[in-house]
Amino acid sequence: MVNNDIIHCQFHNWYPLFPKNVPKAIQIPLSIEFVEFLIKDGISIPDIYLENNYKNAEIIDLDDILEEDNDNDDKDLDHETFFPNIIQKIEHAIYNLGGKIFCKLNWSSPNDATWITTTKSLQCISVGEILLLLKSSSKVAHDIINPYYDDQLIEHDKKNNDVKQQNKDNDLQYYLVLQKWCNYHNNSKFRCFVINNELVGISQYEFSYFEHLKSQKQHIKDLIINFFNINIKKSKFILNTYIFDLYKDKNDKIWIINIKPLKKKFSDFKLFSNYEELLKSYEEQEEKKNIIFKITEKNMRINHQQTAHNIIQRLPDENLDISDNKGIEYMIQLMKLQNKQDLK
Q1: In this structure, what DSSP letter does residue 318 have?
Q2: Which run of H or E residues covers position 36?
Q3: At what angle do helices 127-136 and 32-39 cross, to 10 degrees?
Q4: Taking the CA atoms of the chain, what radius of gyration do you get in angstroms?
Q5: Residue 50 has what pLDDT?
Q6: Ordered domains of the chain (ranges, CATH)
Q7: What DSSP letter does each residue of 83-98 carry, written as one string?
Q8: Residue in 61, 27, 51 with CA at minimum distance from that of residue 129
Q9: Distance between CA atoms of residues 89 and 122, nearest Å
Q10: If residue 53 lies in a helix (H) or strand (E), which one and from where to where?
Q11: What is the largest CA-CA distance in the chain?
């Protein structure tokens, strides 16, 4: 894949093109020093932000769970000198967006790190929650360390990556994107595939069976096709082949959640088997003029490889390497604390 595809799918490149169909967002430019902080080993967040984050939840003792990651130098961090300009902008953005927000960087959200939050979701109401999510996310680290590498499951040596040099080489400016929190229902999220500026496939986003989708299938399909033809196909978005994720609200309005490159090997094709199936749909489309819309049917057999891929992305890295005794102990401690909280 050419790097230009990835560059054009940065949030700040497509967000201005669809002002009426993307939830309100505030973008905060990040300094090189802050970006380096995000991939630095350990939590290294001033205590005041962690205390505020957990003042209403007795769930995590960070000293116990993350003992291996906390350096002595990080324990006495002064919040007054801890990126004050960026922190102030984050606090103002949270307030201006209604107090509940969703965060991401240029490309990815930290949806693989929800295990560390008290709500087990991406909803944030404080600086501490945002920092914890960003620093605990392998996806965020991937975006910073090597955004042009296709395989997001690769392990990176964070200590040996020169972020300053990489940003200079790639001419990258990183942003923290904060959006007004929207409680997207899984039964109304869809992934759409575009090849050569033609919509060739639509898939429900989650694999669960939703009974209402069967009766509403044609209606939803028509809504999505109409939205694409009017709002995206005719827009100034520069790519011709890509993926876009969307949400249909209760009033049938379509909201764009994300736009990303369509990668032949590493994309998540949801209910489609692979890129070749989409390409076949594109080649047959001129004759049939029919766009394939896939939903999970009752008693349908799901591609277990795809399901596993989704589950893996929701787990911390320590849970993926069962050969690492420290990782196993880490997860045992975390689950014990979670069970204790659930019993309260």
Answers
A1: G
A2: helix 32-39
A3: 60
A4: 21
A5: 67
A6: 24-180 (no CATH), 186-307 (3.30.470)
A7: SHHHHHHHHHHHHHTT
A8: 51
A9: 19
A10: helix 47-53
A11: 67
